[in-house]
Amino acid sequence: MSVKPTLASVAKEAGVSIPTVSQVMRGTGRISEQTRKKVLQAAKKLHYVTDSRAAAMRSGEYHEVGFLINQLSNPFNAEVISGVVDLLDAEGYLVSVLDTRDDAARQSRHLDAFIRQRRGGLIWVPALQTDDDTLAMLAAQAVPTVSFMRPANAQMDYVGIRNAEATAMATRHLIELGHRHIAYLGGVGMNFVRKQRVEGYVHTLSAQGLGEGIVWQCPENKLAGLSAMQELMHKHPQVTAVVCNGDMVAIGACLALARDGLVAGHDMSVIGFDDIQDAIVATPPLTTMAISPKNLGMRLARVLLDRMRDPKAPATATEVSAKLVLRQTTGVPG
Amino acid sequence: MSVKPTLASVAKEAGVSIPTVSQVMRGTGRISEQTRKKVLQAAKKLHYVTDSRAAAMRSGEYHEVGFLINQLSNPFNAEVISGVVDLLDAEGYLVSVLDTRDDAARQSRHLDAFIRQRRGGLIWVPALQTDDDTLAMLAAQAVPTVSFMRPANAQMDYVGIRNAEATAMATRHLIELGHRHIAYLGGVGMNFVRKQRVEGYVHTLSAQGLGEGIVWQCPENKLAGLSAMQELMHKHPQVTAVVCNGDMVAIGACLALARDGLVAGHDMSVIGFDDIQDAIVATPPLTTMAISPKNLGMRLARVLLDRMRDPKAPATATEVSAKLVLRQTTGVPG
DNA sequence: TCTTTTAGATATATCGTTATAGCATAAATA
DNA sequence: TATTTATGCTATAACGATATATCTAAAAGA
User: Fold this and answer.
1) What proportion of chain A, given as a percentage, has pLDDT over 90?
2) pTM as predicted
């Protein structure tokens, strides 16, 4: 294997100076057609590729952004990422994804490494337990940053979901179907998103005089949803409907029903959140609060682009609404 | 927002020279305890974080690696990634994930951007239609690279799966159960992985005098698996068992059966590949050729580490075996 | 013919680090 | 006391690129 090609080696190969090569590569300055060809040929021969870190160091222009996500294995997130990448890719940015797994220590390490790389911008879902030191560090670095799902503070752009509105809508839907004992299932701890969602659920219940509700925890995956639903049914047999924190949990809940020979939408109503691809092929197909993850991702990307172009503009907060998508897991109480 | 802190600003704050700060930050050289404290305090106050690009440029040491994956939304890949990250994170490397979506043009753009960043290492699943130019470019850059799933060429390390062995095992299992009309379902085009898997299937069939088999294409997701299975059953009603290219397709196939009121493992045997988490909670639970994705990821990481430590060592090829995990989607012909 | 303009290239400084060598001052040795 | 050695810090050059200024030769104008 040869050594990495640099401007210097290309310049030598083409018999010109280093700045000349630099100008040819970027299409700036006054260069004769003859020299241009000579340089391009040499660059091609040596497989020259610009060292963007060295370039960025001098020019101050960064075309790399990072995306710190809290759970890479969640298909909803994967689709958001694809939306972000689609738009930023078209604008000439490289998007690198890092998985924090919602662990503050891991996030801190990743964030440190990210800052060390001096990328152009950052999108992140602040991990649970994110401490003030981390926020102070991030602010000190002056990196254009957008918070996703969970707002970090008022000085930082934020893109998220109207969570309370969505769960209120879901709960209302179940009440209108005639349900009186509705539980909330999913999510762990009282993080921002879950707090909002639970609030929307609780407020709607109490506004209708249906008590304080039943709130049940579980991690965001199918297996956890399955066993949580089993426990819930055992402890609270009067429940006839559940609002779920996410589709994975909702699908898990439906699996629990199926194991007991029950049918979702008939014996028990289940409503999800996210509208992941699995929701459509689930049996029965899942009624859910739909977010278009791809659009959400593109919105995120646009906010980040705006921030990078104008670092001094006031911070923005963007919230998108969820839409109730009726499929077959909700119905009148059986 | 303040300007980004540098060694120079910390040096000024602490009243010492730039090299002194550099030495304190890295714990090298001879520094008095007094100066050390002074510098650390100044660094903390300004939230100084090393610019790793500038550092790497001088020292030649890179602690960032990239992972170009062909499908981020596939949970199997997500688990492989988590294995890679776990090990490399512990060794002080930052892993950035890029999604090529198996598109050669997108891969080419990402690879270019990656090379421009001069990272320390690369793991990639060469996209379908990867051209020789791309390989030549990569070779010219002298970046430690490991190919995953699909070998790029003999000069490059490779970590993958014993595909033919696995599908042969799967096919043999079905034959032993008494099946005589076994189809192969899933995958698109004749890429390396699919070719090997189909070969394992075809050889086993013909060795048993069961003809050439039926090979059916479809993308690696549940919905595609569902409709492909419907078509397959319509065109080839004699088929009683299918070997699938992946669990997503297998689960989709089971959904197709359920829609027709059929039961996998009884009316039709289905065997998957990967053993993703969904395989366990599928109804019925999926029989599959299991790979431990996390271990695979850690293996990958170790090969990359070895390569980075010794760039001149001969290229290695590592293949892991799949294990038949019996659940409920295979049984005697109904 | 002499000056001015312009095209086409290059010299030089710089970005934020690290590596190497060097230079004081204090301590240890002869 | 003179010399060596160790300690603690700094000057300088480099990494690979870009920005700015400069320089030469040819073309255009006076």
Assistant:
1) 79
2) 0.87
